[in-house]
Automatic annotation (TrEMBL):
Gene3D superfamilies: 1.50.10.10, Galactose-binding domain-like, Immunoglobulins, Maltose phosphorylase, domain 3
Known catalytic reactions: Hydrolysis of terminal non-reducing alpha-L-rhamnose residues in alpha-L-rhamnosides
Species per Swiss-Prot/TrEMBL record: Echinicola vietnamensis (strain DSM 17526 / LMG 23754 / KMM 6221)
Annotated signal peptide: 1-18
Name of the protein in question: alpha-L-rhamnosidase
Domain Alpha-L-rhamnosidase six-hairpin glycosidase span(s) in chain numbering: 463-806
GO terms of molecular function: alpha-L-rhamnosidase activity
The keyword Cell division is assigned to this record: no
All copies of domain Bacterial alpha-L-rhamnosidase N-terminal, residue ranges: 176-349
């Protein structure tokens, strides 16, 4: 799937147009249409459409387009399109084209296609795509919420709750011919939907989590093919606890939000060929039970499944539900109903284990070979009552037992109770684990390694980037980053997947999200996260440290909440979508005013900071062994520097939105903060306490007077080379600006050294000590285990940004966000013999592959259609440059190239 879809409003089919040229003999790729996500049930009245031009003809640019939208496929022609015919629009834009046709009613399915004119001719019409406008208003929903707002005698509501799944079902008759049918469902906290004995869709752990007091997401599915015409039909829904019935009950209620017991609202809208419509909805005529096989389900503690409690055929017509209870009407959630635009989670990959070893009587340890996120599928055969337990951990103790201490009080155990002697294959539904190792106990007979398969679970988004170099360590770090980032996509970017936390901390993703955007098609996820942050804002302007605010942390610091601005800026730069700024600008402005009112002194120093440069490495492994890393070191230098930076960001946002009257106030305050910062923290060649981060931030933010920049940067270099013996000493904040700042000041070689180090502290040190993801701490193998997650992303900092934008040189144009015009300017750093990277931009694949042989560099690049690449040559290329075998003019150190593939040699 092409990344272009990320510019569609989160739900759309992406049209790829292959250019055809009747008058020219050229090679043309095939026409194709690919689904981004299920296009059913969007709630945007005027969605934006995008397409990608695929052609082998060099230097192809769009000059015009025409979009047709119709209520029926047969009407998709210029003279019949009944909803919108854009006409021929003279424009280069092929992304974010807003639908401007007839107003659409709820549950309306529409079809669309596009053709383009380029500088080489006119294309054929694309294949058609479609979307369904869902239920936009509260009153569009029929029926009522159902559930059981209580625990049953066999359940316990305590600090460690044991609440099983709820099962609901209903039967209904269809007596007419169905034209189309769409399900709209809100199942909280998690649901699995069945129609006539079949699971609907391939999502797991759906829907996406939110703060349910603010908003509740619904999912939509086209289910026409699953219905039985002229007969009886059955619907069944399982409800899991998820984040709604939270993982810890009656525990720190001042901190942890709880929303209530699981509940369901279901609408099936059936359109018949005679023009009539019927709605099947939840009511107290449905039947329900909590006395099913899923006896407990909890994100921290696992799932308990007793197969003896199964009810075969519960989701099919004719099931005897006389022993079930009548469904009960329950209070609806407080939050607004919204269509879910970001992807649900899915089993994205199977991971085969690499070893299975006995560690004692009836106990075995399974090694997946990779720290992963998801669950274990098990095949087992035994006798009735046999109970198999699967306990999960990231690492082992020296004696071969699971290392559990770093999981805190998370029980992380799945349990399966057999009901007969038949062979069964089982996996949980409403939990997930972060693990590499699994202790298996109670397995009947001797387990075999082929009886188990790991299921890697994360949001259903594409990997859109590729990166590899001649250095095996860099490649290994990149792979570790991929596994950690992917596994922590859980409808929100969580900090870790294994212990009793798993929270969407803002500070962890501030710059990291930028690097992730080259690796994953994660735009819809991060747009949803901006909504979570905005909705968590207090009336006075305060922003949280965690969003959705499942933990009530509002510590009033600049760095964690400031991620709000940085994610919006990243999304705009990578996609060109101004809506992310427009929708969030007022909340950002309000927060910055709140912070200035409360914490800015008359000398323009921002005094409030909570975490400082979080988790800086200890001076040595010995000094960090057994020590608690949860140490806050507040820094007014950090908070003031960030306020300065955010004034610059807000000035750019105001410019983009045309709020020019607001820019002078931002610039004036920025200059005053700058003066106060310099006066307070500058000390003849260094800032603050001369720590790396103290000097990196003013350099990265452009706060150092020109005459002093080299002196300050020299302090950074001296700290790395002399004080740290060639190592970094930055925590979460400093590492976000480390690699790029070093490279911007001409020391990419030093950045490469930091990236390839294998001794403490470094990413390579993690790998040398067995890491297959990124640790929470630089010394995560020896720190006090209450805080040493082995699968975090926060210490990646700007490393993956550096991989793509510096080593590969792929970067959106400074004045052209979204890669319509982009830069190709690698740092051909000594010490690397090759870098090969690609990235599916909104317009298609961008490639950059350079290789050094002796004194010669060969650089192959790929530019997608309808874009321009600004290719910057290295200053060292003084001996002449060949492009596709022809010499460039002397002095041409920067060239503009249209679409195509090129080879440069210098």
């Amino acid at each position: 799937m092409k990344r272009l879809t990320t510019l569609i409003l989160l739900f759309f089919t992406m049209i790829s147009v292959a250019i055809s040229h009747p008058d020219q003999d050229i090679a043309v790729d095939h026409l194709k249409v690919e689904m981004l996500t299920n296009p059913a049930g969007i709630d945007v009245e005027n969605p934006r459409l995008s397409w990608e031009i695929i052609t082998e003809t060099p230097s192809t640019y769009q000059q015009a387009y025409q979009v047709l939208v119709a209520s029926d496929p047969s009407l998709l022609s210029p003279d019949k399109a009944d909803l919108w015919n854009s006409g021929k629009v003279d424009a280069e834009e092929s992304t974010n084209i807003r639908y401007a046709g007839e107003e659409l009613d709820k549950d309306t399915k529409v079809y669309w296609k596009v053709k383009v004119w380029t500088n080489h001719g006119e294309s054929d019409w694309s294949e058609r795509a479609h979307w369904i406008l869902g239920l936009r208003y509260y009153k569009d929903w029929k029926g009522r919420w159902i559930g059981f707002d209580r625990a049953f005698p066999w359940e316990e509501v305590s600090t460690f709750p044991t609440l099983g799944a709820r099962y609901f079902r209903d039967e209904f008759d269809i007596k007419k011919t169905v034209e189309r049918a769409t399900v709209y469902i809100m199942g909280l906290g998690l649901y699995e939907l069945h129609l006539n004995g079949q699971k609907v869709g391939d999502a797991v752990l759906a829907p996406t989590p939110t703060d349910y007091t603010q908003n509740v997401k619904y999912n939509a599915y086209e289910v026409t093919d699953l219905l039985q015409e002229n007969g009886a039909n059955a619907v069944g829904v399982m409800l899991g606890n998820g984040r709604y019935f939270t993982m810890r009950q009656h525990y720190k209620p001042y901190k942890i939000k709880n929303f209530g017991f699981p509940k369901l609202l279901f609408n099936l809208i059936i359109h018949y060929t005679d023009g009539s419509t019927e709605v099947i909805s939840t009511s107290d005529q449905w039947k329900g039970t909590a006395d099913g096989p899923i006896r407990n389900n909890n994100e921290y503690d696992g799932e308990y499944y007793d197969a003896n409690k199964e009810f075969i055929g519960w989701d099919q017509v004719g099931f005897d539900d006389s022993a079930w209870l009548q469904a009960e009407y329950v209070q609806e959630p407080v939050g607004d109903y919204e269509a879910q635009m970001n992807e649900n989670m899915k089993v994205m990959q199977d991971v085969a284990p690499v070893s299975l070893e006995a560690i004692g009587q009836d106990r075995y340890v399974l090694d997946m070979g990779q720290n992963m996120v998801g669950w274990l599928q098990m095949t087992v055969k035994g006798k009735k009552g046999d109970t198999v337990k699967l306990k999960f951990a990231e690492s082992l103790q020296e004696n071969g037992e699971l290392f559990m201490t770093n999981l805190r009080d998370a029980k992380v155990t799945d349990t399966y109770v057999l009901k007969n002697e038949e062979k069964v294959t089982w996996e949980p539904r409403f939990t997930y684990h972060g693990f590499r190792f699994v202790e298996i106990s109670g397995y009947p007979g001797e387990p075999k390694i082929e009886d188990f398969m790991g299921k890697m679970v994360y949001d259903d988004i594409k990997t859109i980037g590729h990166f590899e170099t001649s250095d095996p360590m860099l490649n290994h770090i990149y792979q570790n980053a991929w596994w950690g980032i992917a596994g922590n996509y859980k409808g929100m970017p969580v900090d870790c997947p294994q212990r009793n936390e798993r929270q969407p901390w803002l500070g962890d993703r501030a710059v990291g999200a930028h690097g992730e955007s080259y690796m994953f098609d994660n735009v819809r996820l991060y747009k949803k996260w901006l909504d979570d942050i905005r909705l968590a804002q207090k009336a006075d302007g305060a922003l949280p440290d965690v969003a959705p605010a499942y933990w009530r942390y509002y510590s009033d610091n600049m760095t964690w909440p400031g991620t709000y601005l940085m994610i919006a800026d990243m999304l705009y730069q990578q996609t060109g979508d101004t809506s992310v700024i427009r929708e969030n600008y007022p909340a950002m402005k309000k927060w910055l005013g709140y912070m200035a009112d409360r914490y800015m002194t008359e000398d323009y120093i921002v005094t409030e900071d909570s975490y400082g440069d979080w988790v800086v490495p200890p001076p040595s492994i010995e000094a960090g062994t057994g020590q608690n890393a949860d140490v806050k070191r507040p820094s007014a230098l950090i908070s003031t520097a960030y306020y300065y930076h955010f004034m610059e960001v807000m000035s750019r946002f105001a410019t983009i939105l045309g709020k020019h009257e607001e820019i002078p106030s931002y610039q004036s305050l920025k200059e005053k903060v700058h003066e106060g910062f310099h006066e307070e923290f500058y000390h003849q060649g260094f800032y603050g306490d001369n720590k790396m981060t103290d000097n990196l931030l003013p350099l990265a933010f452009g706060m150092v007077p020109e005459d002093d920049r080299q002196r300050v940067f020299d302090q950074v270099v001296e700290t790395i080379q002399i004080k740290n013996n060639g190592h970094l000493s930055t925590g979460l904040i400093g590492t976000q600006w480390l690699m790029r700042t070093l490279s911007d000041y001409g020391r990419a070689d030093l950045a490469l050294k930091l990236a390839t180090n294998t001794t403490f502290p470094s990413w390579g040190y993690m790998i040398e000590n067995g890491a297959t993801t990124i640790w929470e701490l630089w010394h995560g193998n020896v720190a006090k285990p209450t805080m040493n997650s082995q699968n975090h992303t926060m210490l990646l900092g700007d490393l993956t940004v550096w991989f793509y934008e510096y080593l590969a040189g792929i970067k959106a144009g400074a004045d052209s966000p979204g890669f319509k015009v982009f830069e190709l300017a690698p740092v051909f750093v000594e010490g690397l013999d090759s870098v090969k990277a690609s990235f599916d931009s909104p317009y298609g694949a961008i490639g950059s592959h350079w290789e050094r042989k002796g004194e010669q560099i060969t650089w192959k690049i790929k530019v997608p259609a309808n874009t321009t690449a600004i290719v910057k040559m290295p200053i060292s290329a003084t001996g002449g440059i060949l492009m596709n075998g022809e010499a460039l003019r002397s002095g041409d150190m920067e060239v503009k190239l249209g679409s195509g593939e090129y080879e440069l040699v210098f």
